[in-house]
Amino acid sequence: MCSPPCNIPKTPPECARCPPMCCSPGISFCIFDLESAVFDTRHIYRRALLELASSYNRIVPEHLLIQSGPMETGEMAELICRKCKLPIGWEQFRSELNERTSELIANPPLMPGVERLVTHLSKCCVGLGLVTSCSESLYCSKIRGREQFFETFCTVLCADDTELRAFKPEPDVYLIAMARLGDAGPDCTLVFDGTAKGVQAARDARLPVVMLAEPELPCCWSELATLRLETLEEFNPEEFDMPPYSRTESPEPRKSQRSSRRSSQKSGASRRSSALQREAEEKAAADEEEEAEEGEEAA
């Protein structure tokens, strides 16, 4: 394993003496799906599909892209081959699609807002779990160069885990991850997932779930989600009785900069005011001396 074994929970040193739910009266555990809530791979799959179809001089209509969104790769490949009349079998198309996706997803970007949220939750002693549809070896290659960030997660459940018997939309993946987090339960655990099958799995595990969906995804596919967002930048921890960002973050530097500019402006104004005052006093003194001299001459 690229780090300590995935199935051994790791408690941050600063939270070692932290009893369950000590930092928040509500959610004390969070489970993230790697591919759709930590990495932003949503557009990568669409790009791979469109590029591969284009190589066979085919255009995939928008309604087919939406329809194939929640499908398994094989099911999606069969649909696209049949509807777009591709000159190859769906098995070959699936293989080529997997290869193209692997190339694009080798170094995926993080979901906007996830680094801030995970760092904040970790500082607040919230137990963090991670689930992924890739094998342990592939997981290690995906996180290469970001090991420090992923060490924040207490437990990681990979697709080739010996305890995992069924994949999404079955709830097993979230039930196992929740069990490995120790005191986690449906009343204090929140899931972040970006797929319809992931949302179904979380709800079947009786867990609230935040769905990170693309804007064009039909509302009917996210109706089981507790909350639907486009990215984690929109997520407000306080909506789930978790500590606000202000507990772990310093005031924004921009505010202090504006304050500094205002202070310097005030200082400049004060200096100008003082100079004008001195100039007025000097002029008044000169006028008094002149009047005194005129008075002596008159006498």
Q: What report would you give on this structure?
A:
With about 300 residues, the protein is of the alpha/beta class. It has 2 domains: about 15-40 and about 110-245, Rossmann fold (3-Layer(aba) Sandwich), CATH 3.40.50.1000; about 40-105, DNA polymerase, domain 1. It is about 45% helix and about 10% strand. The chain has helices at about 35-40, 40-55, 60-70, 75-85, 90-105, 115-125, 135-140, 145-150, 170-180, 195-205, 255-299, and strands at about 30-35, 125-130, 155, 190-195, 210, 225-230. The chain has a 6-stranded parallel beta sheet with strand order 3-2-1-4-5-6, with helices on both faces. Helix 2 (about 40-55) crosses helix 5. It is globular and about 105 Å long. This is Probable pseudouridine-5'-phosphatase. It holds the Pfam family HAD_2. GO terms for molecular function: phosphatase activity.
Short synopsis of the structure:
By secondary structure, the protein is α/β, with parallel strands linked by helices. The chain has helices at 34-38, 42-55, 62-68, 73-84, 90-104, 114-123, 136-142, 147-150, 172-180, 196-204, 253-298; strands at 29-33, 127-131, 155-157, 189-193, 209-212, 227-229. A six-stranded parallel beta sheet has the order 3-2-1-4-5-6, with helices on both faces.
